[in-house]
Design brief:
By secondary structure, the protein is α/β, with parallel strands linked by helices. It folds into two domains: 160 residues, Alpha-Beta Complex (Aspartate Aminotransferase, domain 1); 247 residues, Type I PLP-dependent aspartate aminotransferase-like (Major domain) (Aspartate Aminotransferase, domain 2, 3-Layer(aba) Sandwich), CATH 3.40.640. The protein is 37% helix and 15% strand. It is built from 15 helices and 14 strands. Strands 4-10-9-8-7-5-6 form a seven-stranded mixed beta sheet, sandwiched between helices. A four-stranded mixed beta sheet has the order 1-2-3-13. Strand 8, helix 9 and strand 9 form a beta-alpha-beta unit. The longest helix has 21 residues. It starts with a helix and ends in a 5-residue tail after the last helix. The structure holds ligand KE4. The site of ligand KE4 has 21 residues, from helix 4 and helix 5.
Length: 422
Amino acid sequence: MSDSRTLFAKAQEFIPGGVNSPVRACLSVGCDPLFIAKAQGARMWTVDGQEFIDYVMSWGPMLLGHSHPEVLRAVHHAVDQGTSFGTPCPAEVELAEMLVAALPGLDMIRMVNSGTEATMSALRLARGFTGRNKVIKFHGCYHGHADAFMASAGSGVATLSIPGTPGVPQSVVDDTLLAPYNDLDAVEELFATHGQDIAAVIVEPIAGNMGVVLPQPGFLPTLRVLTQRHGALLIFDEVITGFRLAYGGAQNIFGIIPDLTCLGKIIGGGFPVGAYGGRREIMSRIAPCGDIYQAGTLSGNPVAMAAGVATLRALQQCDYMNLTIKTKMLASELKDILEERGVQVQLNCMASMFTLFFGPDPVTDFTTASKTDGKAYASFFRQMREAGIALAPSAFECAFTSFAHTEEDFEKTLDAARTVQF
Ligand code: KE4
């Protein structure tokens, strides 16, 4: 098998930037991507034979760990029956029923093939249901790459410092209203100015695309009150948080019921799956029972559905609280190790997702996240990678633990951090 360097050179001939998703190019952390040949549990192996402890976990989906035996068994069985029928199949009904049972905001759900499709469809539904066009999103939140969400987006857009995105018409940008995360005054101002034109507020209930940023007390409940008051829908983008924070989502943790919920990542068990759902009254507007159109060749694919069902079944047996405690201990010890070496670090952590920000000030929104020391993060990333620890190749992403990470993995990670030089 060819080595990463050779593969990357060849990939750049045929694929823009040599990658099929920009953040993977590692541009902001000053190194080339490694090509992975195999992943198992919390470990992955490059084509060059290097072994890593993985804290990217495919950007969130692999909460059970890579190659979980029950997921693989279900997928192998499903594949043997055929890979795509373009018709309804039993597994999509089973997964839909499991999702609706787990999330209080869901009466009905529609499967799609990515988080982007989920949020794009949820916004169209919100616009159709309310008859309004504008949407409020928050600086630094990332909801996939649909035109409406490219304004001040987080994740790879922020990582590459792309100010806005050519190809998004001004008319689309004009309908996307922006507010700082956690800034309720700004949201109230937007409603005061545009209230009757706002179809929805979309929010990551725990932001994960400017690094982890937590909602301050009152932020989410007030969004719920404001949207209800002004006849707008509240959309929780739980593509990251769904089934990561709990067997359910942020809406279970915070006790706030959004009008629409977007899901992805974990519910596909590593296969291309997204979903959006909500109250029956709203979801009934989706074709073919309603007049708002959304479709997909591979939506509800039997193999992907089998992976999702197996993943959720396995997660029902997992101890989320224990993973939360272990993750907090790991992240806090990493912070302590860095601070003992004279480095100023902020830690934002929730359940099994965390971000270490380099800088003196707390990170509560995209402005404060953007003031952190990206160069220090890049150096930390490179040195940890040298030591066999794979972190997110961007300061504006999360580190994810999984139910497959062991105490040995955590100890090796802490030992690696003790070797980092600043
Ligand atoms: P996808 O279209 O990438 O499946 O999902 C888009 C999306 C929607 N909402 C949230 C909260 C998300 O985090 C994402 C995608 N997450 C990024 C990483 N934070 C995907 C990684 C990538 O773009 O390569």
